[in-house]
Design goal:
Largest sheet: 9 strands, mixed
Distance between the termini: 15 Å
CATH class of the largest domain: Alpha Beta
Structural class: alpha/beta
Low-confidence stretches: none
CATH topology of the largest domain: TIM Barrel
Helix content: 25-40%
């Protein structure tokens, strides 16, 4: 794990960068003056006598990214990740905000755990917005104290990484969440249909001799959730969709006016089931990598607005857990440090997704889904942004991570786009 060091902002002059902010419709080359953690000016000719000058000509400045789905493991599983190491990984990937999932130990189902996460995050550069459990201990039997959790600072409810099987309980959770104006986030997988599958069910799983997880395991829960969202009028967010049918169902629901949003992971947009051909456990994820047709439908869904956001599903595991036979390895990949450069390499450079849409999906939309303030590149706004050299490349190596874990699906890949600096919460980090 690399050492992470940030320093407080005093007065900084960022020179020569392209400022690209889809939320503010800003796209121009200019200097940006930072003072006391805020953007003091955008333009040319700022005096530099009292400022630290950061000359980044040829680079691009983006508003800070936000991840809707990150597992930071603390409290309880600090051997895999801590809040500090997870936030360092986030900053190294350009993410200045995270929504953390509740699968901690103890589960994030009480005021005390929510406040613990928030206190730990105060020491970092990252804005943490915890999602609390829908049910006590994420067991799916009894609703958590939702009102108290919202008062404590929870911004959403989820039993991730599992779907809530009890439809009646989910209906009541949606009713309460609607009262508190927060979304319910569901990970859509029917446990009975998924069984003990290891990868997508199809010809490839048969050839590799591995038990499969059929696409219908996802589609049937998505259909149920959409009906419940339509019936209750509550905001439902569907996490990590992966099938062509899921995209179709959500597209149709949105046309009917259902209050549904959804996200997709970078690896489901870029890879397919063939990646499991060598039984590499880093590619064992949930939902599983699916067919090329599914992947193409996801990309189309990003372009046409059916899919609202991109989430990393950052799921760190220790080497001892992942470096075993594929039957025994846990599901999951890290994602915070590679998400943007992988998507830029695989989708933007190939012309399959405009850069502005990518930025919308990882910066603006995630915060709007959670009713959070969207950062902007404008005078007077807090300095919340990342700086990237899009002409440079980097190889993802095991010793390049700030995360405590190394289980990256993009390990050893060469990716386009290298981060240079991040500003947030009155601090600056330079790579």
């Amino acid at each position: 794990m690399k050492e992470f060091k940030a320093k407080k902002q005093n007065e900084i002059l960022i020179k020569g960068a392209r400022l690209l902010d889809p939320g503010s419709k800003l796209d121009k080359v200019a200097d940006m003056l930072l003072r006391q953690g805020k953007i003091a000016g955008i333009g040319q000719g700022f005096p530099s006598e009292n400022a630290d000058v950061l000359d980044v000509g040829g680079c691009v400045v983006f508003p800070g990214f936000f991840d809707l789905h990150a597992h930071l493991r603390e409290p309880g599983f600090e051997d895999q990740e801590t809040i500090a190491s997870g936030c360092a990984a986030a900053i190294a990937g350009g993410f200045t905000g995270l929504c953390t999932m509740p699968d901690t130990e103890p589960v994030t189902d009480t005021r005390g755990v929510v406040e613990f996460i928030q206190r730990a995050a105060e020491k970092t550069m990252v804005d943490i917005s915890p999602a609390a459990a829908i049910t006590k201990d994420c067991c799916g039997a009894e609703l958590a104290e939702m009102a108290e959790l919202v008062q404590a600072g929870a911004v959403a409810f989820s039993d991730a990484p599992h779907s809530l099987a009890n439809a009646g309980l989910l209906r009541h959770a949606l009713d309460y969440a609607c009262m508190f104006k927060v979304p319910v986030i569901d990970v859509c997988e029917h446990a009975g249909l998924a069984g003990d599958g290891l990868m997508h069910e199809g010809a490839m799983s048969t050839r590799l001799g591995m038990r499969g997880i059929p696409g219908i395991a996802e589609d049937i829960i998505i259909s149920r959730d959409l009906h419940l969202a339509e019936y209750t009028g509550a905001a439902m967010h569907l996490a990590k969709i992966s099938t062509k049918r899921a995209v179709e169902l959500i597209r149709d629901a949105k046309k009917r006016g259902v209050k549904v949003t959804c996200d997709v992971t970078p690896h489901h947009c870029l890879l397919a089931e063939e990646s499991l051909a060598h039984y590499n456990t880093d590619f064992k994820v949930k939902p599983p990598l699916r067919t090329v047709a599914d992947r193409e439908a996801l990309i189309k869904g990003l372009r046409d607005g059916t899919i609202d956001a991109i989430a990393t599903d950052h799921t760190p595991h220790s080497p001892e857990e992942k470096q075993v036979e594929i039957l025994a390895a846990p599901f999951g990949t890290t994602g915070l440090e590679t998400a943007f450069s992988a998507l830029y390499s695989g989708l933007v450079q190939s012309g399959r997704l405009p850069l502005e849409i990518l930025l919308q999906k990882i910066s603006v939309a995630p915060r709007k889904i959670l009713h959070l303030t969207v950062p902007a590149l404008r005078e007077g706004a807090p300095a919340n942004f990342s700086i990237w050299d899009l002409q440079a490349q980097r190889q993802v190596t095991a010793d390049s991570f700030y995360s405590r874990s190394r289980n990256s699906i993009f390990l050893n890949d060469t990716l386009q786009g290298v981060i240079k600096a991040v500003c947030n919460k009155g601090q600056i980090w330079q790579a």
